[in-house]
Amino acid sequence: MRNKLRSFPRKFAQCFLVVLFVFNLAQAERKVTEKPVGPGCTFIEVFDPDQRLGIYVLKVDLRNEYIMIDSVLAHDSLTGRETVLDMSQRKTRPRHQVVGAVNADYFHVSAPSGLTVDRGHLSRSARGWAGIAFSENNKPLIAIFKDKVTALVADGTEISRLSINRPRNDSNVVLYTGLYGNTTGSMTDGKAVLIDPNGNSFIPQESFDTIVDRLCPLPRQNLIPSDKWVLSLGWDFLNIMNRVKPGQKLTLDISIKPDTISIYNAVSGGPRILRSGKVSVESNQEGQRKGFDREMHPRTAVGYSKDKRFLVMAVIDGRQPGYSRGVDLYELAGLMLEFGCYEALNLDGGGSSTLVICNKIVNNPSDPNGPRPVANALLVISTAPDCI
Fold this sequence. Notes:
Blueprint: H1 2-28, E1 31-38, E2 41-48, E3 53-61, E4 67-73, H2 84-91, E5 97-103, E6 107-108, E7 111-112, E8 116-118, E9 121-124, E10 130-134, E11 140-144, E12 146-153, E13 158-164, E14 173-176, E15 190-196, E16 206-215, E17 229-234, H3 238-241, E18 249-257, E19 265-268, E20 272-275, E21 278-279, H4 283-286, E22 299-304, E23 310-316, H5 329-338, E24 343-346, E25 355-357, E26 360-361, E27 376-382
Parallel strand pairs: 13-14
Antiparallel strand pairs: 1-2, 2-3, 3-23, 4-27, 5-25, 5-27, 6-7, 8-9, 10-11, 10-19, 12-13, 12-18, 14-17, 15-16, 15-17, 16-18, 20-21, 20-24, 22-23, 22-24, 25-26
């Protein structure tokens, strides 16, 4: 009995070593590589054969003096789609190197679905889903943004419920710019006037004066001249049209809430998946399709650290048996936590999920025809002399 007791610690130690060896062997199967790709930028590639996941991450020091965050519309308009790689290459020039680029918003036909702000200019109104915004000095904010645009007619009449470059119906008013295309498109009956912007653009938290140019001849499908805007009023607002007369001043006021940062760039997505360092998949709050949060897809996400110093852009490949299965939103949130995020947002996924590093696609997009053209992208730009 005494001999058995003496041998027990040795046998226990042997078993422990075997378990430790197997554990380390299992851990070794997860291959992680990291390399610098620009000032303050690290590209992280994770291949986990046990979990069948291919994970691609760009981690960015937002306080680096050479780094700036930018958003870009496909073909610089709301009327076409373009691959993330094409947008990255198109925006790359000396001392303006695109270190990283990732697909951003969902899209309808070709336009981003939600709030779009490009270098301080509001291109499209919000839709009620979460987005990520950046100030000009790279301070990030994830929130459900709401824009408020009002027009004040010369006689004091205020036109509310006004949106920018979105489809119009009977109960809203929309301002259309050349970003929307050549025409306002098909819509319900109403009336429209041409507006002379006086060289202005839609800058959040500002107001400015425009001039009513003339009435449009048609209630729908109005042409949008390159130097004018179209103010299109739905049926419920026709009584106001009689007060909007050619030659009058029309004062526009634009604000976006929350306004805790001065928004310089913004893209939408949804839902939020991390809030204050905890998994918080907010599909129900944002009105996404039931079950979307539990589906396994290729995914794209963006997030930032608690001190807002580090930005993380991640793509997880999927729909490729034997290589990468994809993730649901809860697993995506866990991965963003693993990469140091305190707040994180899901972006468009599926075949749209694309990460570009120094003008090369680094993940494996799932569409059989190759990288999918998308509506917009989020860019990390270096103003240093070289990309690396």
